[in-house]
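Quarterly update from the structural biology core.
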Amino acid sequence: MGKLNGKVAVITGAASGMGRATALRFAKEGAAVVVADLNSQAGEATIAEIAAGGGRAVFQHTDVASDAALKALIDRAVSEYGRLDITYNNAGIGGATGRLEDTTAADWDKSFVILTRAVFLGIKYSIEPMRKVGGGSIISTSSVAGLRGVAGLHAYSVAKAEVVSLTESAAIELGRDRIRVNCICPGGIVTPLVYRGMRGGEDAARDAMAKSQPIPRAGRPEDIAAMALFLASDDAEWITGTAM
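Predicted structure, tokenized:
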């Protein structure tokens, strides 16, 4: 408890899945959290749960495809809590799927707007407020698909690989400002993004993932929240440019 006392965090895609689990964990560890998502109802439920546990949080309706919305999100953190210490660029979509020859340019472009450009903008707008407080931690969600291509997930794999590359280059540029930049590459995590529309739903996804990994259980959103907490905390103050 208390690893993030006095810190202010912004988390995109924080109304469900890994983002929600991270928002709850960060608040439990003492951070004031700006919960950002398109889903207002679920976002408000997340901040209500944080408040019920004695934490501090506000909800900001955010479309990460919008430059202005992402800037407003960072501005909200500073205006609400006076500073910014942590940004977690987590919002995502499955993106264009299927065979390359069947993928449209429009679907390809949309994948990169959400999965890569939003990460770039989240980093960009976090720099100045973090510089003002002497540093910070920027975390982004990549994927194991960004480390090794996956058939049928061409756009997703390439976009997530770009997140890894941007993490590395941003870490080099921002290190002198004590702004650390890292990304997390989840494997089989049971989240609505994964099991939505899947035959058998959440239970089927959990069983399939448990069978496909060396540790015989599916990943949980809380597993990613634990890694995000480590990267956000002072325990990781000498770690930057990594894809965990």
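The chain has a mean pLDDT of 93.
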